[in-house]
Amino acid sequence: MSLPPPGADRPVHEFKAELFKALAHPVRIRTLELLAERPRAVSELLAEIGIEASHLSQHLAVLRRAGVVTARRDGNAVHYTLAHPAVAQMLAAARTVLLDTLAGARTALADLERDEQRP
């Protein structure tokens, strides 16, 4: 899945949808979380994520095509980094949304439990 170059013939929300499709896998999110900490070699990502090299390679290719990571070769090692600091900010925003949603669900559950305990 390669993101086409932006053009006047497609609305921005379609490009955003393509970006989110590229992010829509737990391995890709975990990869981005690790890269948000610092650039890493593929060997480090493999050790941290614990999947087969061929699978990680496929996920990294999706992220590269989406333009969210970049790769550079250093001898036999390939190092990945986030293409833009906003990717880390986007991950942090998603975490905030999820934590707020969870807090709201916990509050609603506590309210239900209190209502059940009333005579």
Automatic annotation (TrEMBL):
A matching Pfam family: HTH_5
SUPFAM superfamilies: Winged helix' DNA-binding domain (SSF46785)
Keyword tags: DNA-binding, Transcription, Transcription regulation
Domain HTH arsR-type: 8-102
Gene3D superfamilies, per the entry: Winged helix-like DNA-binding domain superfamily/Winged helix DNA-binding domain
PROSITE patterns per UniProt: HTH_ARSR_2 (PS50987)
Cited SMART domains: HTH_ARSR
Record-linked PANTHER family: ARSENICAL RESISTANCE OPERON REPRESSOR ARSR-RELATED
Protein's recorded name: Metalloregulator ArsR/SmtB family transcription factor
Species: Cellulomonas chengniuliangii
